[in-house]
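[audit] Reproducing an earlier prediction to check determinism. Same input, same settings, fresh worker. If the tokens differ from the archived copy the diff job will pick it up downstream; this log only records the rerun itself.
[audit] input (104 residues):
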Amino acid sequence: MKSGMMIAPVIANLGPLEALCFRPNPSEVEEVFTLTLEHLCQAQNRGYTHFRTGDRFGYTLPVFHGPRYRVWGLTAVALDQALALIVPPEEVPQHRSVSTEAAC
């Protein structure tokens, strides 16, 4: 699905996360969490979310499953595209399809 929105993921080595102080906007971010690159590249942690528009299929987006949360929507799209740029294709497993559907 194309929205016309431009997104620029930024990849950086910030050093040990314990030394950082995150202060996200509480009206936009409920909690900050991390997932390792290794976790994101494991086949069992990657999939698709199928969305429908009204009573029919609309579009499919990637989803990443974490131990506590799942990363989906625009964040998952940006993450999927960033991983495609930094991880060699042979090291990124194919997404597996999941039957999750969300109405829009």
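[audit] rerun output stored. Observation attached for the diff report: The helical segments are 37-41, 73-86.
[audit] end
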